[in-house]
């Protein structure tokens, strides 16, 4: 076995609670088959006395099994059986611990007033997937097409279990996300053209209880909260986008006649000057 691969496997086993020598011994037995403590000692470089202790410890944990006597030889438990057992016991322990810890919380969760900072794409994606998975009634999202794509499986599953999903969408292919009657997708302002740095932003709320607002680029960060005032703020932002999407759907022509294509007159008036100039160029390029 290549050294780097062995080191990675040892590291993964140690992350599951194996000691360094326990990981080495288990990997050796997987490769070599029935072995004595002396053979384990010789192949792993540990002292024979340590090898005996390690094998006895692994046998007590049902990671290895003795299969002969005089001298005692040990074999490794099949990895599938071993790891499924570890996963099951870990899940049971986590479930029991969650119940026990919940009895220590106050009637009003202390964390409900906090805003947690998230850094990195992986942590942000995990938080959003968890938010989607725990939704009971609805999910509201405002984001760009490329940012929404990784969450398509979780959103499909949520829609399948009856969660109402509403998306304000920057992009060109909203039909991709209309997977069933529980999903409504609006092109932002009727055209889906990103405004400013909208291509890098995602705002998602669930059930009027939880919100994540994130910025995704080479350096990604986000705010995650169940704080009632902040969640209301995020919900209100998306709700007004919904209002405008409905209004634009029915009166888009009149709106553009009054305020210009992509309400450019309003943007020139209220956006920062540099951002307004950039937006004007984008609109002119699209025409």
Task: Supply the key terms.
287 residues, Arc Repressor Mutant, subunit A, 11 helices, elongated, alpha+beta, seven-stranded mixed sheet, 2 domains, Endonuclease, Chain A, two-stranded antiparallel sheet
Short description:
The chain has 11 helices and 9 strands. With 287 residues, it is of the alpha+beta class.
Can you put this structure into words, describing what you see?
This protein is an alpha+beta fold. It has 2 domains: 78 residues, Orthogonal Bundle (Arc Repressor Mutant, subunit A); 175 residues, Endonuclease, Chain A, CATH 3.30.870. It has 11 helices and 9 strands. β8 and β9 form a beta hairpin. The longest helix is centred in the last third of the chain and has 32 residues. The protein is elongated and about 95 Å long.
- Largest beta sheet: strand ordering: 3-9-8-7-4-5-6
Largest sheet: 7 strands, mixed
End-to-end Cα distance, whole Å, is 61 Å
CATH second-level architecture of the largest domain: 2-Layer Sandwich
Helix content: 40-55%
Domain tally = 2
CATH topology of the largest domain: Endonuclease, Chain A
Overall mean pLDDT stands at: 88
User: In the CATH hierarchy, what is the class of the largest domain?
Assistant: Alpha Beta
The secondary-structure class comes to alpha+beta
E-strand count: 9
Q: Which segments are poorly predicted (pLDDT under 50) over 5 or more consecutive residues? A: none
Into which percentage range does the β-strand content fall? 15-25%
What's the Cα radius of gyration?
28 Å
Backbone shape? elongated
| Alpha plus pi helix count | 11
- Give, in order, the helices and strands: HHHHEEHEHEHHEEEEEHHH
């Amino acid at each position: 076995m290549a050294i780097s691969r062995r080191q990675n496997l040892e590291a993964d086993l140690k992350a599951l609670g194996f000691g360094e020598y326990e990981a080495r011994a288990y990997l050796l037995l997987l490769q070599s088959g029935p072995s004595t403590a002396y053979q384990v000692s010789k192949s792993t470089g540990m002292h024979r006395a340590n090898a005996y202790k390690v094998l006895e410890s692994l046998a007590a944990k049902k990671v290895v099994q003795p299969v002969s006597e005089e001298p005692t030889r040990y074999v490794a438990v099949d990895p599938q059986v071993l790891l499924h057992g570890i996963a099951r016991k870990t899940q049971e322990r986590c479930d029991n611990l969650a119940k026990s810890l919940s009895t220590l919380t106050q009637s009003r969760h202390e964390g409900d007033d906090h805003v947690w900072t998230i850094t990195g794409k992986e942590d942000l994606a995990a938080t959003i997937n968890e938010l989607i998975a725990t939704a009971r009634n609805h999910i509201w999202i405002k984001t760009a097409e490329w940012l929404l794509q990784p969450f398509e499986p979780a959103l499909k599953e949520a829609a399948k279990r009856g969660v109402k999903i509403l998306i304000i969408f920057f992009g060109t292919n909203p039909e991709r996300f209309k997977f069933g009657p529980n999903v409504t997708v609006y092109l932002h302002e009727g055209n889906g053209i990103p405004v400013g740095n909208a291509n890098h932003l995602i705002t998602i709320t669930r059930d009027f209880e939880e919100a994540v607002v994130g910025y995704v680029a080479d350096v990604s960060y986000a705010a995650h909260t169940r704080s009632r005032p902040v969640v209301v703020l995020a919900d209100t932002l998306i709700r007004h986008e919904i209002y405008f999407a409905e209004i634009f759907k029915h009166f888009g022509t009149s709106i553009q006649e009054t305020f210009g294509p992509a309400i450019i007159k309003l943007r020139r008036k209220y956006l920062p000057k540099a951002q307004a100039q950039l937006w004007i160029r984008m609109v002119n390029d699209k025409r």
